């Protein structure tokens, strides 16, 4: 092992990332074989003390990796494998999703946020087409230290939430919607153009990116 990474031949596991950023490298599953994921996970577990995560896994690959590296917890809805989840800290993240079709992205955001130690609460199916559903949860939103707001279609929900809370709002556009949503481009542009100032906007369908953004916010307090 060299200083800060381990050369496995097919990958260079970033064993120094926890020291630099406070969280070990997270392994992106697609495009890797089970054997490659197993090797990287073993390297990260040996070199670090914090949580080790593998994202976007199929059930079959998750089963193979979990069998080879004991102690992992698989969340099939979030497509996530986690070893050594972090202890919960006093930083409340409310994950708000507009519609039931946004559930896979919301599941990833909530599971990753929980795995890195954030206190997670979820509000599902509270989109603007029935805004009374969101307004009924204003007290929950008011108790948040950060809100992850997930929406497809026209992407309006983060603007509404951004006008209701003073904490950071992390907006996640999803690829949910009909043709003119352009697989998430329309909500992405809407969120970037929001009249609610100060929204943080992450990539399309990136529940993972939103959760790590919240983790960085928690670390700054």
Most strands sheet: 5 strands, parallel
Average pLDDT works out at 96
Strands, count: 11
Q: What sort of overall outline do the alpha carbons produce when their principal axes are compared?
A: globular
Measure the end-to-end span. 33 Å
Give the SSE order as H and E letters. EEHEHEHEEEHEHHEHEHEH
Strand content: 15-25%
The helical percent reads 25-40%
Radius of gyration over alpha carbons?
18 Å
The assigned structural class equals: alpha/beta
State the low-pLDDT regions, or none.
none
Biggest sheet strand order reads: 8-7-9-10-11
Number of helices: 9
How does this model look, in words?
The chain is an alpha/beta fold. It contains nine helices and eleven strands. It has a five-stranded parallel β-sheet. The protein starts with 5 loop residues before the first strand and ends with a helix. The relative contact order is 0.12. The model has no long low-confidence stretch (mean pLDDT 96).
SSE layout:
Layout: E1 6-7, E2 12-13, H1 17-21, E3 27-28, H2 34-47, E4 52-55, H3 59-68, E5 73-75, E6 80-83, E7 92-97, H4 103-115, E8 119-123, H5 132-135, H6 138-142, E9 146-151, H7 157-162, E10 169-173, H8 185-192, E11 200-201, H9 207-219
Parallel strand pairs: 3-4, 7-8, 7-9, 9-10, 10-11
Antiparallel strand pairs: 1-2, 4-6, 5-6
Helix pairs in contact: 2-3, 4-9
């Amino acid at each position: 092992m060299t200083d800060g990474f381990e050369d496995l031949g097919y990958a260079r596991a970033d064993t120094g990332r926890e020291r630099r950023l406070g969280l070990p490298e997270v392994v992106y599953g697609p495009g890797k074989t089970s054997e490659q994921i197993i090797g990287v996970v073993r390297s990260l577990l040996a070199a670090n003390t914090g949580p080790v995560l593998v994202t976007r896994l199929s059930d079959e690959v998750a089963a193979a990796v979990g069998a080879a590296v004991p102690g992992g917890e698989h969340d099939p809805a979030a497509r996530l494998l986690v070893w050594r989840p972090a202890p919960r800290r006093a930083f409340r993240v409310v994950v708000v999703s507009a519609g039931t079709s946004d559930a896979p992205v919301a599941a990833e955001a909530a599971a990753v946020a929980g795995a890195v130690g954030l206190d997670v609460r979820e509000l599902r199916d509270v989109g603007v087409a029935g805004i009374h559903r969101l307004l009924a949860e204003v007290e929950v939103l008011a108790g948040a230290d950060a809100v992850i707001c997930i929406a497809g279609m026209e992407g309006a929900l983060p603007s509404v939430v951004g006008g209701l809370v003073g904490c950071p709002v992390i907006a996640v556009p999803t690829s949910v919607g009909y043709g003119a949503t352009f697989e998430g481009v329309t909500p992405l542009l809407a969120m970037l153009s929001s009249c609610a100032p100060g929204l943080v906007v992450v990539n399309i369908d990136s529940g993972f990116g939103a959760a790590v953004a919240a983790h960085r916010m928690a670390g700054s307090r």
